[in-house]
Every structure is written in C-alpha cells, then in structure tokens.
Amino acid sequence: MRIRLPSSAFRRRSAAFWPVRVIAAPRRTRSRWEGRIVSLTGATDGFPTMEEAKADGLFHPNCTHRIEYLDEDETAAALTERDKRLGRDKRLGRDKPDEAGGEEQPPEQPKKAKADEAGEAHKSYTGFEAINRKIREISSSVKNDISLPAEIKALDLRPIVAEHGPLDDMRAIQANATDTNCAFCTIAMEARARGLDALSKKVRLEDIVADLNLSVVSWEPESCFTDAKMLECDKETHEEAQKWFSDATSSFGDGGRGILLLEWLSGKRHAVSILHRDGETFVLDSQNQKVSSAEYLRRCIPNSIRVFRTDNLELTGRAGSALVAPTK
Fold first, then answer.
1. What's the domain count of the chain?
2. pLDDT (tens digit, 9 = 90+) per residue, 221-277?
3. Residue in 189, 190, 217 with CA at minimum distance from that of residue 203
C-alpha cells in the first residue's frame, strides 16, 4: 500500500478524522474500490472503513493501489455528499448507509468546490427568532452599572438604550467582523449581553502576531473573564461529542451563555458564542452571522471541542483589547 501525503498545512490534524480516496497506481489494475472514499480508522461516520476494504480484497500482497488524502475543499464536499446520502437512507427506511458488500456502488467523486467549513450545519435557525423576541423584552432590565475594569472604562462604551436580543447584537457586530477576529466577536457579544454598546475590534493576522494582548485574546478568549472554568471534550465520534456538548451546556441553566472553541477538519480554529434557552443550546456565530444547533459540531474534530460559561463571570481588563466603541 502506498500513501500520498498531504501538504504540511494539513498534517496538523489527526488522520483519524480525515477521509481518504483509493486511487490506482501507474500500472493500472481494476478494483471496485477505486475512486471510493474510505475512513482510515472508522472515526469518520458515513464512510466504509479501511478494514472493510482490506477484507474485501483491497491492498492484497503486491497490490498497486494507494490512497491519497483529500484537501480542504474535497473534504467539505465529501462530507456534504455523505450527509445527503445519509438523509436519503433515512427517508428510505435504511438503518445505515450502503456497505462495501453486496451490489457494487458507483465511486464517489466529490466535486471540488469552495465550501464553508461548517457546511450544511451552518444554517439559519429560524426558530431562534422567538427566543430573540423574549430576550428583547427583558433587555431593558439589564443593569448597565456593572463592575468594569479600567481598560474597558477607558473605551467610553455607552449603554444600549433600545431593546435588543442576540440576533440584534450579532447584526451590530457584523460591521466589524473580519476573517481573523472570531474570538473578538464572542467578547463583543458578551459585552453587549451586559448592556454595553460595544463592537469587536477589527484585526488582521499580522496585528495578532505582533501584539501579545491581541494574540492572547485570539487564542485564549477565556483570559477575558474572571475564573473561567474550561470544559474539554474527550469524545472520539461526532455523535458522542454532540451529546457531550448538549449535556455540558445544559448545566449552564436556562439563559446561560458561554463560548465554544473548536478546530475544523481543515485544521483551522474557530470561536463562537453559545446560549442555552428553553431546553436547547444554540450556537451563535456572530462572525459569519449564523445560528445553529449542536449539528454545527459535525464539521469539527470531536475532541477539539472546549466550552466555558460566561454569564456568571466578570470581564477582565484584557477584554478591553477585543472591544471598540461604535463610530458616532
């Protein structure tokens, strides 16, 4: 068996969660596995495993086939196609997707297309509108005289006088959202939930690298809160990770807020806000203006998930590095 390695940018991620494609060597031989996408360890749901392929005769002695890793776009396309296939299986009453045995299936050939890292899990959650209205109604009772460190007072942030909910706050933050300030957006969401008219600071990657405070905020947003208690997921499958996430955030109680940190299958990291309300946890991606359920986690590495609660904590001086006042 020969393996074509991906570029070093992609090697950072564990191969256990990386689907691969079986391809032919120059000395061409035929196999019904050729062109199919398989999971090396079985950790990626919805794909046949390498062990199943071997049991079916692939990679026999002197076999000239090999595998190649999919790049970021191909991985996103393959996972999207997998979800469509699993949806069809469910509608047809099948317990699981087609296995390697039985009638031969046509090879999976995902189209190379630019895809959002969160794929189909990145959908607008329309049911959240009702919750947004509920929070709007009580927003006027939020105290604006909260204890603030000097670094935040120096920003001269004004109180939010109008009724506002999480969706309103996300729309306000959109004005300053950039490709590199996801963690800053979560801090701005927290400041606004406390009644402060704040936006996230616009930063470039070179700004984060050059400034220690910005770097710490970007990689460790928990440093912007007093005594943050980080919860870390140790699950290996997406189903287990989703259940862990739901259980962990349910402990926040109704109205509890937090921040979710994760790593995409591509190796990129991301930070989003979370809100537990009416028995469900919502993922609020203010950088990309999306609201999702726990299905959002199906595009990340399961054991990369970390969450911490924020609504019961105070902001630290470092949070001031993530915030700016709106332009008057």
1. 2
2. 999 999 999 999 999 888 899 999 999 999 999 999 999 999 987 778 899 999 999
3. 217
pLDDT in tens, 83-112: 777 665 544 454 444 443 333 344 444 444
Q: Is residue 274 domain-resident? A: yes
Task: Establish if 107 belongs to a structural domain.
Answer: no
238: which residues sit within 8 A by CB, 6+ positions away?
Answer: 45, 297, 298, 302
pTM of the model: 0.65
Contacts of residues 213-217 at CB distance under 8 Å and 24 or more positions apart, as own/partner, are: 213/318, 213/321, 214/321, 216/318, 217/183, 217/184, 217/187, 217/318, 217/319, 217/321, 217/322
Query: Where in the sequence is the domain holding 6, given as residue range(s)?
Result: 2-91
Q: How many Å apart are CA 6 and CA 72, to the nearest integer? A: 10
Q: Same structural domain for residues 163 and 34?
A: no
